[in-house]
Amino acid sequence: MANEVALSGTIRSNLLTLQNTSDMTNRTNSRLASGMKVGSAVDDAVAYFQAKTLTDRGSDLTVRKGEVDQGISTLNSAINGLQAIEKVLQQMKGVALAAKSSTSATDRVGLKTQFNELAKQVNNLANDTSYQGLNLIATTKNSLKVNFSEKSSSQLTTKGVNVQVSMLAFSAAAGASVSAGLASVIGVGGTAAVSNWSQVTQATAPGVSKFDKIAARLDSMIATIRSDTKSLGANVAMLTTRSDFTKQYVNTLQDGAGKLTLADLNEEGANLVSLQTRQQLGIQALSSTGQQEQGVLRLFR
Question: What structural domains does the chain harbor?
Answer without folding.
Answer: 9-50+261-298 (no CATH), 67-257 (1.20.1330.10)
